[in-house]
Structures are given as C-alpha cells and as structure tokens.
Amino acid sequence: MTCEKRLLELWRRAKRLLDERLSEVVERLPETEAIDVARYIVAGGKRLRGFTTLLVAEGLGGSWEDAVEAAVAVELVHSASLAIDDVIDGDVTRRGGPAAWLKFGPGRAVMVANLLISYAQKMLLERYGFRAVERSVIAWFDISRGEVRDAYMEEGGEYTEIVRLKTGSLFRLAAELGAVAARAPQSVMRRIGEYGELMGIAYQLADDVVDYLRGERGASISRLLAWLGYPHDVLSTVIAKLREILATIDGIVRDMVAGTFAPLLSSLPRFVVKAMFSEAGVSRLVL
Amino acid sequence: MTCEKRLLELWRRAKRLLDERLSEVVERLPETEAIDVARYIVAGGKRLRGFTTLLVAEGLGGSWEDAVEAAVAVELVHSASLAIDDVIDGDVTRRGGPAAWLKFGPGRAVMVANLLISYAQKMLLERYGFRAVERSVIAWFDISRGEVRDAYMEEGGEYTEIVRLKTGSLFRLAAELGAVAARAPQSVMRRIGEYGELMGIAYQLADDVVDYLRGERGASISRLLAWLGYPHDVLSTVIAKLREILATIDGIVRDMVAGTFAPLLSSLPRFVVKAMFSEAGVSRLVL
C-alpha cells in the first residue's frame, strides 16, 4: 500500500475515534445547559491536528490510546478558537453551516468556547502533567498574539510571522503533545515541534492561496502577495514555496525517526496540505 | 494603629504598586496595536484580589516583591474576565466609564482580553512554575463554569455554588498564589485557598445585596432571595450571613497564621467586603 493510501485509512480511523471521544467529553460537561452550543462548536472538523498528535505519538513509540486525550484537547482548542474568531471577524459560515454565534448569539458562543478551552487545559493537566500544560500555555499565548496581529495589522511584510503564530503554533502543540504522550525526551519534543510548526505554515499557505484563487482580497492576501514579491503566477510560486517547506520537513523526519514509521510521518504534512486543497475543490496538485 | 487603618494604608501602597506594574506589563506587550485596548481594560480596578495575594504572601513569610507578578497576573485575569463578561451580558458601563466593547468593539475587546489571560498564564509559568499554573488552570475552568451557570440558569437554589465558581475561585487563586510565592507547603496553600474562597463568597454576597438595594431584579437576585428564604429584611439577613462567613474565616486564620500578621489576615476579608459596600455608597455597616 502506498503511504498516501495508508495515511488516508489511518486518518479515517483517527477521525472516527476523535469524533467519538470529543462527543463523550462534550456530553460529560458539568454545565448541561452549555452542551448544545458545545456540540455545535466541535462538530464537523477534519481533525487534522488531532490526527497529527496520534501519528506523532505512534511514530515515537507510543500508542493512540496514550495520546487520544491530548488529541481531543487540541481539537477542543481548535474548534473553540474558530468559534471565537468568527465572532471577532463577523464571519457567518463555518464548516459548511452557520457560525455558532449566528445560531446561539455571540455571548453564548464566546462563553462556551472559553469553557471548552479551559476544560481542555484541565484535561491536559490531569492526564499529562507539567510538560503538556507548559507547551499549551505557550501555544495559547502565541495563538492569541497571532489573532491580534492578523486582525490589527492591515498590511506589511509580516506574513510568515503571523502565520507561524496563528496556525503554526497549534500544529506545533499538536506534534509536541504527541511526543509528550509517547514520553519522548525533551530534545525529540523540540524537534518534532519544529516539524509541526512547518506543517502548520504549509497548511495556512495552502489555505490562503485557495482564498486568493477564489478572489478574496483581504489583509492576509495582501501580506501573502507582498511576501511572495507580487509574482505573475501566484499558485506556482506558492507551490514552489510549499515544496521547499516540505523538503525541510523531510530532513527533520530523516534525522529523527527511524524504522517503518518514518515514511508515514514524512508524508503527513503533504497529506495535510492536500486535505486542505481537496476540501477547497483544488485537487490534482503535484507537491 | 488599628488593624483597619493599617490595612487601608497597606492597600493604598499595594494599589500604587499594582497599578504601576500592570502598566509596565501592558506597555511591554509585543502586540503594540493592542496596547490601547489593554490599557483601558486594566484601568481603574480596586486591586483587592492582587492585594490579597500580596498580603497572604507576606503573612506566610514571603515578601511583596516575591508575590507581585502573581498579584499582577490575578489582576490581569480579573480585568480581562470583566471585559468578556460585559460583551456576554451586553453591559454598557464598567468601573465608572463605558465598557471596553462599547469603546473598541466587541471583537477587539474579546481578542485583547484573551491575549491578557494567556499572557498572565505565561507570566505565572515562567515565574512560579508548575504549582502556580496548576492552580490557575483549575481556577479558570471554575470561573468559566461559573460564568456559564450564571448566564444560563434563570432561577434555582444554586446561589452559593454559582458564587463559589464565579467569584470564590478567583479569590481562592489570589490567596493560593500568595502561598505559592511564599513557598508555603501544600497543606498551608490548601487552607489559605479556603480562606480566599470564603472571602470571595462574602464579597459577592455584598455585591449582590447592593444590587438588590438599588432595585435590580435579575436572575442572580432571584437566586439570592431563594437562598435566603425570601426574608422580610434582606439587608439584615445578608449581614447575618456575612458575619457567619467572617467568623469561619477567623477560625481558619487562628488555626494557621501565628505572630503579628495574623490580625491583618483576619481583618482582610472584612476590609474587602467594606471596600465593596463603600464603593457602592453603602457605608457605616457594622460587620
């Protein structure tokens, strides 16, 4: 079986597992009044960040069962951040339906999203201890910083820095928590964190170029174009950048992971970027 | 000098110190675009929670300098929570001026408040390590839970539980962090946490009875009246409850703190409740 086919199969399995565990966590919320909103906020994601946590844990000698609560925590934070972002940006659709704030009001959306984020933090604390909480505190500070920069900076050459804060930091956390769940040493966790961050940057780059191709022209597109140097052919230029990033990631994996799992971790970032493109209807790209 | 006079003097000093340090922290934010909003969000508080952290630290053998970053973190979280609450509840005034969301828009208010909360968490992590982060994660989960219950539950006998989650947990954290800063043993931290929680409950009770006296009749007033058993004279009934709580607190302090500092820690809850009453123009109450 090719790596890509194997990843697709694993991802489907991971998605089922994460959907199931996320539901269980939400239904167990002590604030039963908030369960409807919480269920809506967590529904419908691709679970690529949680999948990253599971695969990294397995690649470093742990099991999915070791890592599943970390993966669930990452997906909780991701879903909750999107719900808050939509309030901040006034976006009306999310994951193919109306944004949570449109259905339940901005107050309830923000309130339940904040509940989910602190719930995720508590899960990490209780299940994995200091290292997991430390990484998540740093990641959440970076995510908040990225959000502020993204919303406030109108133009400017900061494209990669904003993307690193906004998307790179959560993929970094996803990978780091996989290492924590597998009880990997600190040096391995740091290196796999870089792997995750680069994957996040590649993912966001794909996301932004899709927006560009659809005709969007907001501040982040301006930043993207400025960073690329206003090329004639934006898509080809982005694909060249993506190939560069993916080659760097390959180098990290080769350095780090031995055995039969290395090809899967090496293929994962490519898989994640393609999942982004194919969700947007842009397929048949050779990366 | 009476205890009360001494506390007033210490509180003025603490307020100056905390105002100064909060300003420094805000001006150092790496997201310079957010500084205006952040400055507005943190301005104008009584700093009673941060004062609690400083006094507890000193009472347990530490110094204000050991504890000041913890006190600042508690005040950052408190101010940020208020800014988010105002968005959720649609409240238009705060600390004698327009709410942050009215001045800067709800999106920016929520975004910068979340930035301040994660910044506070990172300060605690870097300065005090695991114990401080652990306590704050648990407190922030409880605060989020309290907010959801407060906003969703229309009536019901849950008054003390909601108050414990909503206000008790942050005062508890304020006291616990004072113990952490003074490197007190775990058992002392737990006991001083109970002291803080009871102080928070007394504070909220005072806050709610002031709202009642002003003619407000929202869900939390209904819960308060139900809990009190719909008495003829609400103020006297609340004062009797406050006296009970303050007596329990006295017992905890007598058990725990020896030496010249005990009377100050014993008077602090009374001082905090009176500061609440006197800010609301209700003075000359004998507690």
Automatic annotation (TrEMBL), chains A, B:
Origin: domain of life: Archaea
Cofactor(s) named in the record: Mg(2+)
One Pfam short name: polyprenyl_synt
InterPro entries noted in UniProt: Isoprenoid_synthase_dom_sf, Polyprenyl_synt, Polyprenyl_synt_CS
Keyword terms of this UniProt record: Magnesium, Metal-binding, Transferase
GO terms assigned for molecular function: metal ion binding; prenyltransferase activity
Any one biological process term the GO annotation gives: isoprenoid biosynthetic process
Family as reported in the entry's similarity comment: Belongs to the FPP/GGPP synthase family.
Name of the protein described by the UniProt record: Polyprenyl synthetase
